[in-house]
Amino acid sequence: MPLISFTDKGLYCEQGNFYIDPWQPVDKAVITHAHSDHARGGSRAYLCHRDSLPLLKLRLGPYNYQLVEWNEKVILNEVIVSLHPAGHIIGSSQVRVEYKGEVWVVSGDYKTEADGLSGIFEAIPCNTFITESTFGLPIYNWKPQQAIYHDIQNWVRSNELANKTSVLIGYSLGKAQRLLKAVEEVPGNIYVHGAIWNVHETLLQAGFKLPAVQRITPDTPKEAFKGSVVIAPPSAEGSLWMRRFASYSVGICSGWMQVRGNQRRRNADAGFALSDHADWNGLLQAVKATGAEKVYITHGFQSVFSRYLNEIGIDASEVKTEYGTEDEETQSAN
Fold first, then answer.
1. Which of 1, 97, 143, 239 is most exposed by smallest CB count within 10 Å?
2. Which superfamily is assigned to 145-272 in CATH?
3. Which spans are transmembrane here (predicted)?
């Protein structure tokens, strides 16, 4: 019997009687991070990293949460479970599962470059590694974060000189916090969409240090946006909500912007390949560093990545799951 099986409810450890990031309600859920494709409501009990708690409460509401620190061991029916940094977003963790000397690791979503917010990815030796491959194509090769930050800062400065509002599009949880760090070095006000404001306030109350922002409301005067930075989620892109900024430029911040055609298709003025996922080299480095004899690939470019791993002598298989869409919450745009 495999230590973790792939079921219609999610990744299941029968020996420990728990699920990892289940997509249906279960008795015991171990959660890698607070994005909506990995954390869903309705389960009786949740195990998560301490930093994920405020985000899970914001998105799921009050539940029975058991909190752990990274590397802290928990025994579930003789199965040893521990969480380890994934570097994806604040609180994101990999799940290490050990039973009778056999070790499996579920990566969740991860990136291997430290971003200064999300913890530093830790490669965990294991027998079997279950990994994502969101950007599992050789074309996806990220520039260093600081270089991308400089590109964003220079773009904002050029818009300021033209008396334009710089509108940066990025997910409210994960990407938005990194964008705040990118633009805090550029003088001027930072305004945020309501969805980003909610996450921002939650993190501030939890003790995280983030740059000061102002929430956009119907009462915010239009002239206040000129030369300023606005950070908004993808749901705002191309919406009526954007009209209040008058003369503005849109910069989309996503790993998909590595392909120039995507910027044109989304009618953006600029594209910045800033991703919260590992690129091709990061994925390969992570897989090799685990020393795993078997690798399962849950979402992304599964066929390409698994084929390449098999070609270089690593036994890899594709697994169909419901992971992969970091859905934005449909909150008020005010």
1. 1
2. Metallo-hydrolase/oxidoreductase (3.40.50.10710)
3. none
